[in-house]
Design brief:
The chain has 11 helices and 2 strands, in the order ααααααββααααα. Strand 1 and strand 2 form a beta hairpin. The model has no long low-confidence stretch (mean pLDDT 81). By secondary structure, the protein is mainly α. Helix 3 crosses helix 9, helix 4 runs antiparallel to helix 8 and helix 5 packs antiparallel against helix 10.
């Protein structure tokens, strides 16, 4: 896929325009983002991503469009799990509702920069060293096994522990206790202070670096085109903060999400290893000759990714509904027993 420089510039420019529109309309006046507003913006960003994919299909063909959509869906689904970490960070720093949108915006801008760097490094490594696919594939399988063993759902009592980047930021600037109307920096008695907003933004941005370690190899398993990798990541991140407000408490209801993502990562990891074997050049494997192994195409990849996500969502909601009914029944039974004990005590008196 030969992408001219002007296409890159036009794409980046278009993304900046979308951010500018978001800033003017949403962030012009700090406020709590409601479900209706978040739903409209999520729909808008998904529509933009779909239109971009249609453009790829029209100008570059169905293969590249399929790779883009597979990458976008994968990145978006991985981002949903990341939202829980954002929720933990927001709760740990007690970020006021009216300022959470601004925190997410800056954090996601930092994430776009970091992911752009990772994509450039990953693309350069793949183009120079074919064995990188073995490494990426093995890492994704390892991540899948680790993720599947992390248990069902998220611990609601999970606490956020500041990473080294955040601790370093605290040493660099003295930090106030108050948010000072959402300002990032403020002056007190002529001395410059950072507010908790600054620390939270650093925490969100640096947390996404860890997320990228999984997601970037995963999308390279679906397409080797840096342009498609960047576009899929960018569109997935662009709608992420709106999705945060839309899902809200629903995040905790997706109890099987980690297992579903583990299946997807493991599937992509196996896909990468098979492709590496199919184009093998390592001398200690089959004498440096390619192996006649089956490979997994984009249609099957898309089907598996979408299918796993649907099954995960349905199974999660069914389980949480059963748990709620069981808890309600137990509470009713407990209340009845307590009422009966109270009545018995009064009779005995």
């Amino acid at each position: 896929m030969n992408v001219p420089v002007w296409i890159w510039l036009a794409t980046i420019g278009g993304l900046l325009v979308l951010l500018a529109i978001d800033l003017v309309i949403v962030d012009r006046k700090p406020h709590e983002v409601g479900v209706g507003e978040a739903a409209r913006w999520v729909t808008f960003y998904i529509a933009c991503a779909v239109l971009f994919g249609v453009g790829i299909w029209l100008f570059s063909g169905g293969t590249h469009a399929g790779e883009y959509f597979a990458g976008y869906i994968t990145e978006y689904s991985l981002s949903v799990d990341n939202l829980f970490i954002f929720l933990v960070i927001m709760s740990a720093f007690k970020v006021p509702q009216i300022h959470q949108h601004k925190v997410l915006l800056v954090g996601i801008l930092l994430a776009l920069v970091f992911r752009g760097i990772f994509i450039a490094v990953g693309a350069a490594a793949i183009s120079q060293f074919s064995w990188v696919f073995y490494v990426f594939g093995a890492f994704l399988v390892y991540t899948a096994v680790k993720l599947s063993g992390s248990g069902i759902g998220h611990d609601e009592g999970e606490e956020y522990e500041e990473n080294r980047v955040t601790k370093w930021a605290r040493k660099l600037f003295p930090v106030t206790d108050d948010y000072h109307h959402g300002h990032v920096f403020t002056k007190i008695d002529g001395k410059r202070f950072a507010t908790p907003m600054f620390i939270v933004m650093i925490a969100i941005g640096s947390a996404d670096i860890m997320f990228a370690v999984d997601s970037i190899p995963a999308i390279f398993g679906l397409t080797k085109e840096p342009f498609l990798v960047f576009a899929a990541n960018a569109f997935a991140l662009m709608g992420l903060r709106q999705l945060y407000f839309l899902l809200g408490g629903l995040l905790r209801r997706l109890v099987y999400l980690s297992i579903g993502l583990a299946v997807i990562l493991g599937f992509i990891g196996v896909k990468m290893v098979l492709e590496a074997l199919h184009t093998n050049t390592l001398p200690f494997i089959n004498g440096g000759e390619p192996l006649n192994v089956p490979t997994i195409g984009i249609p099957l990849s898309l089907s598996v990714i979408i299918g796993v996500l649907i099954i995960t969502a349905v199974a999660s909601l069914m389980k949480t509904r059963r748990d709620e009914k069981r808890n309600a029944a137990e509470e009713t039974e407990r209340s009845s027993l307590e009422a009966g004990d109270t009545a018995a005590d009064q009779t005995s008196r």
